[in-house]
Specification:
alpha/beta; Rossmann fold; Transcription Regulator spoIIAA; 31% helix
């Protein structure tokens, strides 16, 4: 595709950039954002590099949900700048939105682009003259009105002339008011073969105000992809050759609440089943109270929806949930999990659990451990609390000692490992449907079952194929089996 023409200076600059690399940190929504950036850069005529060492431009699509997430990004910046000092490093995503000047001060960073401007990263990289005419709206400000995620919002902060990486050691900062975004544009359609299980982001932002979470401040308000656009995107992915599509969002179960008529998430799922030819739809994480009876019944009745439910728990203590400003109680959560298990006996059911929230005492933790033990969960994502600047919990007293947090984390991880192994052992001797992912160096093939279990198969099988496999073993590393149908 020919590069856009924006004057001789633009063309000359664009010719110096031919290869790019995007590295994503964090959740499925971030991965979907990264895919959109990749497509936009390719549409400008740039070529994906095999790694940051081969690229002229590296885009780091950051996460900021924990302090360690921030550290991962800073470590990547230092490593890339050391190994490829000539490349331009652009940092975008949630960390960039939260602390742009902190990132801009790091050696090697050429530009910091907040979530407010991530839709125009291709223009920034290619030096479009667009940015010389941005209305000035003050520090971190933005003009008001209905703004889409793919248009420019506000002015660079502090304001710089256009031209990514043209100002010596001074990193440019493009950050605007993320709360000025009120609509969500369609997610990208990937080239066939580029991914096995593409993520379609149908929702972004969050209207909840959990006391520990910085995400609403860096992602903005909840906004939904229109139903017709979501259907069109899924069908386009099907036509591109994908066999499974992962539907994702920051607060996925809130899809539709900002659209005319306030449709519910189950309306979207039903439309994807009725109006697309998707062979398999997998739902990403959904808040407990958004698992309605209708959604559970719809999921249980359709073989085209992966039997995989993820419900963030965070804590099994009612007291801690209230301090977290979560909108459910432990008994509400237990009821949803039990309803899912009753409707889908073989479904994977996962949870996020946080340990070490300020003020969490031994009794609170024991309530969490006991709830996890009694519920039919099949895996856990266990996190240690991380104080985030700007959140309410950052001001709370009674910090839990790191040694106690580490011990509680270990206890829950061990419990999770036991639950997962017990769940996997239920399928030894049975046949399961799975989609092939990639081939290991030893010649075996990795696949993922409908109910979210990793499966290792002897032999080489092309990616993105549905197989039926006989399960012969279950270990902490996953299932082992042989393909029966391919």
């Amino acid at each position: 595709m020919p590069a856009p023409t924006a004057g001789a200076e633009h063309v000359a600059y664009n010719n110096t950039v031919s290869r790019f690399y995007v590295e994503n940190f964090g959740c499925r929504a971030t991965q979907a954002d990264g895919a959109a950036m990749e497509r936009a850069l390719q549409e400008r005529g740039l070529t994906p590099a095999n790694g940051p060492e081969d690229a002229e431009v590296v885009v780091l699509n950051s996460c900021t949900v924990t302090a360690s997430a921030d550290q991962d990004v800073r470590s990547a910046i230092r490593r890339i700048h050391r190994e490829n000092p000539e490349c331009r490093i652009l940092v975008t995503g949630c960390y960039a939105q939260r602390a742009p000047q902190e990132i801009a001060a790091l050696p090697g960073v050429s530009a910091v682009v907040g979530n407010s401007h991530k839709g125009v990263i291709a223009q920034i990289v290619c030096g479009d003259e667009l940015f010389s005419n941005i209305p000035k709206a003050g520090a971190l400000g933005a003009p008001q009105g209905r703004l889409r995620d793919t248009v420019t919002v506000g002015a660079p902060y502090p304001p710089h002339p256009p031209g990514f990486g043209r100002h010596g050691n001074e990193a440019e900062i493009y950050v605007g008011d993320i709360f000025a975004h009120t609509e969500l544009e369609g997610a990208p359609v990937f080239e066939a073969g580029a991914r096995t299980r593409p993520n379609l982001k149908v929702q972004d932002g969050c209207n909840n105000r959990c006391s520990f979470c910085i995400i609403p401040a860096v992602r903005g308000p909840s906004r939904s992809l229109k139903l017709a656009e979501a259907v069109r995107e899924v069908q386009a992915l099907v036509e591109a050759g994908y066999r499974e599509v992962v539907v994702s969002g920051i607060n996925l179960g809130r899809w539709g609440r900002d659209l005319p008529g306030r449709p519910r998430f189950e309306h979207l799922v039903r439309a994807l089943l009725e109006d697309t030819a998707a062979e398999k739809i997998r739902l990403s994480s959904i808040e407990p109270m958004d698992w309605s009876k209708e959604l559970i019944a719809l999921m249980a009745a359709s073989a085209r929806i992966a039997k995989h439910a993820h419900l963030p728990l965070q804590s099994g203590s009612d007291r801690i949930l209230r301090l977290m400003h979560r909108k459910y109680r432990p008994w509400h959560y237990a009821g949803r999990v039990q309803a899912i298990r009753a409707a889908m006996p073989t479904a994977a059911i996962g949870a996020d659990v946080m340990v070490g929230f300020p003020g969490e005492n031994d009794r609170d933790f024991e309530e969490t451990r006991a709830l996890v033990d009694q519920l039919p969960l099949t895996y856990l994502h266990v996190f240690s609390y991380s104080s985030r600047p700007g959140t309410r919990s950052a001001q709370m007293p009674e910090a839990v000692p790191p040694s106690v947090i580490k011990q509680r984390n270990r206890i829950l991880r061990e419990a999770a490992a036991q639950k997962k192994l017990a769940f996997m052992r239920c399928f030894v001797g049975q046949t399961l449907a799975a989609i092939t992912l990639n081939v290991y160096e030893d010649g075996c093939t990795e696949a993922l079952t409908d109910n979210y279990l990793k499966l290792r198969l002897p032999g080489r099988y092309p990616a993105n194929r549905w197989i039926t496999a006989l399960v012969r073993s279950a270990t902490g590393d996953g299932l082992g089996g042989v393909a029966e149908e391919f």
